[in-house]
Every structure is written in C-alpha cells, then in structure tokens.
Design brief:
single chain, 638 residues, alpha+beta, 8-stranded mixed β-sheet, 6-stranded mixed β-sheet
C-alpha cells in the first residue's frame, strides 16, 4: 500500500487525504520503533525520460545557448530508443528487482568509503550548542548531556522510541538510528569500511589530551545517573593531572589525513604492540568519544571552529561522533557523515537539550560528587610509539593545523524576521531561503551557481538523501529582476513566486524518489562497472559543473545549528535554521580562494533577505498591514 506515491504530489487532494487516513489507521497509534520497517516501499528507479528532463532544466540557467544545445543533444542521444541510456536503465531496473534499496551500497561506497581525501573538514560536519546555558561547569554539563544520550540509546535498544511518521501517518525509515552509537569508519587501502559496536558499554574520554575508557552502564546494563557520570569524569581529570607536565602524543591527529596514509599507519600501530591494539579497540568500539577542551568560545563562530577541528587538536574523526565540552561548559559535536545524515543526530541533540530544561534535570554545578564504590575506575589508555610514529604524529598535527586554517566560518544571525512572514505571503520558507542564498551569490559574482540542497528519501527502505537542484530559470529571472533598478516590486514578487513554485516542486520530486542525481549516479556506476566508455552525457560540460552552493536546512528546535565545508573550492557551504521570527545561516568558504569571502557573502545574504522582505511588503499591502499589528516590529530596509 505504501508504494503509492501520488499523494506526495497532491497532498490536499481528497484521494490523498483518504489514503493518509487509512495508512494512519493501519499503522496503529503506538507502533514500536522497528514495527513499520517491513512495510516501507523499496527505493524506486525513476523514469529515464523524466530524469533527463529534470536534469536539463537544472543546468539551463548556467549554460550559453550553444552549450545548452550541445547538452540537449547528448542527453537526447543518451535516452534514445535502443541507446546506451535505455540499456543501462534496464540493468538498473533489474538490480532494483533484487534489492530493497538499489542505491545504498553504491552511495556509501562511492560517495564516502572510497573517498581518499581527509574526512576532517571535507566530510565531517559540526554541531553547536543550545542558546541558553543552564549548567556552568564542564563536568556537570558533560554528565547531563551524556546521560541524556544514553537514555536516547536506551529508547532505541528497547524499541520504545516512536518511529518518525509524516503527519502521524506515513512511516519513515528508522534504520539510521541503529547506527548512532558505537559506529566507526575504519581506514583501508583504496576503500574504508564501517564497523558497528551497538552493544558497547563504554565511552572514551579525552582529558588533558589523554585517553580513558569509562564504563557508562551499571551492573544491570542501565545508564549511569548524571551524578555518577560526573564522578567518573572527575576521576579522569584527576588521572590526567598526574601527567600534566608530560607531553601527550596527539595520536588522534592521524585520523585527519589522507585515508590511505592513515590506513597504513594504523596497520603499523596495531602490529607494533598489543598496547596500541587495546587502545585502538577501546576507541573504535566506544559508544562515542567525549573530549574535554580547554577553549572558552564566546560566539557561535568560535563554537563552530572548535567543533569543526578544535584548532588542530585531537578529535577522533573516524568515530560516529565526538562530543566536545569546552572549559566554559559549551557542548559541541563533530560528526562523521558516512553512517547517517544530519537529521538523525539533530534529533538526538534535541532530545538532549530538551532534557536539560526538564524538572529532573541534574544541576550539580560545584564541588566534589560522591563516588559510588560500585563504579569501576576509569582505565587509562596507553600508546607505545616509535620515533618514526612520533614523526607521523608531528606531521599529522601540522597538516591538521593547516586544515583548520583553510576554512573561514561566519554565522548570520538574522533577527529581522523569520518564516512567519514568508508563510503568510503564501511561500515555502525553505524555498524562500534558497532564493536569498542564490541572490546573494548572484550579486557578488554576476551569475547564478549550481546549488545542492539535501532532501531526505527516508520514506523508502534504507533511504538517505537526494539532491534538490534549487536553481531554475525562474530563480535566474528573479535574480536578474532584483538587480534591475527599473523593475517593480510586483514583477519581482511574481518572479520570486515562480522560483518558490519550481523549488518546492523539485523538493517534492526528490523526496518522492524521483530526483535526477542519484539516478544518474546509478547509471554511471553501471557503465563504469561494465567497463564501457562513459556515455557523452557524463563527460559533457554540464555534468562537470560543480555545486558552488552546498546548502541544507537544519530542522533543529533547541540548538544554534551546525555546518560543513563547501563542496567546491570556489564555493560556499550554507546550513540554515528557520524559526518563526529569525533565520540563522552557518556560512563557510575556503580562505585560500580569491573568489570567495564568507563575511562578504554573509553581508550580501542579509541584504538579500531584507530586500526580499521589502518586495513582499511592496507587492502585498495586506501583508504589511497584518504585520503592523504583531507584537514584534519589522523595520523596512534602508
């Protein structure tokens, strides 16, 4: 029954409403975590002609008439009856008949595990803290957050977590939740692997750049209380103090390197001494890594820099996630992107942060905490290193230090308005933000940019993401009118509505399993696997265009958001949080490239948002009158 996807294109139609009602009833009122997984539909293979049409519409704004004509020619040749595209499509459909998700193995292997670039900066993403700080000491804050994370794991283990459902009816795939804890990416020659240690009962705590294995469950397997966790973390701090004067090897910096380099070094560490094997096993099998950091970030930008790379200090980048607790009790995270997509960890952190505001919140801020005699002593993890290995570490530290300097980060804290005004104007807030992101780039560069926006395909079995190509000819027309002083607010608003319509349509298509990028990737992988010469579509200029704008909306309710590095060297990474009365954008750019500047882009984005608001108010008098009666004031841009 869940195979029918028509409701997603017309969710307000009477047939769709009836369908959703029936699905909701059949799904039950309180299904367990995995109960609805078997009912999920398989990932579909999109129609080839549809994919080609979608692809052409997405690249047209970026090509000259001559270039677009050539791209149309190679696309027509590709999808012609009896052509190579049709043959590859048949092979892909055959694969889809034997696998619930024809993409997932290829996606993780070719997009992540075969990548040889460092995952530090270039793959991992960061998360920042909540707005308010209720606990002011790092040990107490860490205890609170770790305890909540363990409770989140307990909900998964006991299957008491409710499965995510659209409007409480259509179930979403929860498979990624099984990977949250205990997962690690193991480096290998040419290709990495993922290992899973779901039943692990310990953390690795990094204190004073020293490593400790800490058991976090009691004898019955239940999560330790926050007070006990704080006591254990204080024990780690006391043990670290004993070696404070000794230089500690930054072994974790090895995980920031080229994957083949790190794979070879890890093999030698394992072969060198059983001590190293024991330590690596403890780190890699840990539920996650907890790092106590000596920095005191004061701004969101400071927090972002610490979370992304700790200024070149130790983060075990291979781990599922590192929780970083600063000296001023800020809680941040660094997350491997291989095993899951950001919404999963955003859900976990919303659970953590919401718990901090609950009545049973642990608020021990000062002084020693009584240590239960039943708590096992934290185990110090040691390294046995040769002079050559210490040389590797020194080189890796230098490399990570250089990486940490290559990305410029800024956060636009836009407080003038939020999604409220946009929704009252009859537009999707996400599509509105995409228009602003594009307009800011257009004003700085005089042209549009191919744009990647992440759209979830979790309605399908083992679903992950699809690319939403938010740029269209309507977007380009809107940007041109916004830069034309003779254009009217009415004309600009009409163009904006046209962009929003197309962007919303593409998001619907992508999340419904009908996007172009993953489909084209599958066809390309099949062609490469067959040893055939790549079809001209994949060598054409249009297919080689880089995503100069990499964007994603973070559906965070409690945190200040997070971000990632750009895909293209001359591009921007833009992660944004949309709230009722404010918009926050985490913006990144590579410092070494003359074409990009995160601060200038942030300023251009702020002005774009203000100008777009003025267009809405100028074109819709009723909207301005409605806003005048609201409790918050809106100042027109000057």
């Amino acid at each position: 029954m869940l195979r029918w996807r028509g409701w997603a294109y017309s969710p307000r139609a009477s047939l769709s409403r009836a369908y959703l009602g029936i699905v909701g009833v059949l799904g039950g009122s309180k299904p367990s975590l995995w109960e609805l997984q078997p009912a999920l539909p398989s990932l579909p293979v999109p129609d080839l002609a549809h994919t080609c049409e979608l692809y052409l519409s997405s690249v047209q704004p970026l090509l000259s008439e001559e270039e677009f004509a050539e791209t149309k020619r190679v696309v027509a040749e590709f999808q012609a009856p009896g052509g190579v595209g049709q043959k590859l499509q048949a092979l892909l459909q055959e694969r889809a008949r034997t696998q619930r998700n024809w993409l997932i193995q290829w996606w993780e292997e070719f997009v992540y595990l075969r990548g040889r670039m460092p995952i530090a900066i270039f793959s991992n993403w960061y998360g920042t803290d909540r707005v308010e700080q209720l606990v002011q000491t790092p040990m107490s804050r860490a205890a609170n957050c770790v305890h909540r994370l363990l409770l989140f794991k307990q909900l998964i283990d006991t299957r008491k977590m409710k499965p995510n459902r659209i409007q409480g009816t259509v179930p979403l795939c929860m498979w990624q939740y099984s990977r949250i804890f205990g997962t690690v990416r193991i480096p290998g020659k040419d290709c990495d692997t993922l290992e899973f240690h779901n039943n692990s009962q310990h953390l690795v705590v990094v204190c004073g750049e020293q490593y400790f294995k800490v058991t976090v469950v009691d004898k019955k397997g239940k999560p330790l209380k926050a007070a006990d966790l704080q006591a254990q973390f204080q024990r780690c701090a006391a043990l670290a103090e004993e070696r404070k004067s000794e230089e500690q090897p930054a072994v974790a910096s090895l995980t920031s390197q080229n994957r083949d380099v790190w794979a070879a070094q890890r093999d030698e560490l394992l072969a060198m001494d059983e001590t190293n094997s024991t330590t690596l096993d403890a780190i890699e099998s840990a539920l996650f890594v907890l790092v106590f950091d000596e920095s005191t970030p004061q701004t969101v930008e400071d927090m972002a820099q610490v979370a992304m790379h700790r200024a070149g200090k130790a983060i075990w980048f291979d781990k599922n996630f590192n929780v970083i607790v600063t000296k001023n009790a800020r809680v941040l995270s660094n997350n491997d992107h291989t095993w899951a997509d950001a919404p999963v960890m955003v859900h976990a952190w919303d659970f953590v942060f919401s718990g901090e505001s609950s009545v049973d919140h642990y608020v021990k801020n000062q002084g020693a905490v009584g240590i239960s005699k039943e708590l096992p002593q934290p185990e110090r993890l040691e390294w046995q290193l040769t002079d050559e290995m210490r040389g590797w570490i020194a080189a890796a530290e230098t490399h990570l230090g250089e990486l940490s300097q290559c990305v410029d980060l800024t956060v636009l804290k836009f407080q003038h308005f939020g999604k409220g005004i946009v929704k009252r104007a009859g537009m999707s807030p996400d599509a509105f933000c995409q228009a602003a992101i594009q307009l800011a780039y257009y004003r700085l560069n005089g042209e549009c940019a191919l744009t990647y926006e992440s759209g979830g395909t979790v309605r399908f079995f083992y679903g992950r993401t699809e690319t939403v190509r938010s740029l269209s000819m309507d977007t380009k027309r809107f940007c041109e009118l916004m830069c034309d002083e003779s254009s009217t607010d009415e004309a600009r608003f009409k163009a904006l509505k046209g962009h929003v319509k197309q962007c919303t349509k593409y998001m619907r298509v992508a999340t419904n399993g009908d996007g172009a990028d993953r489909h084209l990737m599958g066809l390309k992988v099949l062609a490469m696997g067959a040893g055939m010469e790549l079809p001209a579509l994949f060598t054409d200029k249009a297919y080689q265009l880089e995503f100069k704008l990499s964007s994603s909306q973070t559906a965070a309710y409690a945190s200040l958001g997070g971000g990632f590095a750009p895909i293209a060297r001359d591009g921007y990474g833009v992660s944004y949080v949309v709230n009722e009365e404010r918009l926050w954008f985490h913006i990144s750019a590579y410092r070494g490239h003359p074409a990009t500047d995160a601060t200038k882009y942030s300023e251009a984005l702020s002005q774009a948002l203000l100008d777009m608001r003025d267009v809405m108010l100028g074109a819709q008098e009723d909207l301005g009158a409605d806003l005048a009666h609201r409790h918050f004031g809106i100042q027109r841009a000057v």
